[in-house]
């Protein structure tokens, strides 16, 4: 009997835990995940560096739970595009930040590299575009604007 193929629908957001924000003052949290691993749509391992910029409200990310969540993705078969959107949705639902920006820099596959970005501040995402740090970053460089 073949093993069940795990897909994005099997990603368990309940693994993500939060801590109370110790202050009501505005500040920014940056998280780098240098060994983000998952199975691509052809069941081949894919690797990426993921950068998260997080402006908390009343809850902050409990990093150990984020680590466990990320490790659980190693056996999930999913495309880059689906994964960054599911990851974004889960972080938004669990932490409800004032802003979250996720940049996923994927290692080359077949000689082609990919870089995906998603930001809750974008109007298309329901944001108000009140942060201007990304607006003028329209070049084709691979620097990561966090």
TrEMBL record:
SUPFAM superfamilies: Tetrahydrobiopterin biosynthesis enzymes-like (SSF55620). One of its GO terms (molecular function) is preQ1 synthase activity. It comes from the Bacteria. One of its GO terms (biological process) is tRNA queuosine(34) biosynthetic process. This is 7-cyano-7-deazaguanine reductase. It comes from Marinilabilia salmonicolor.
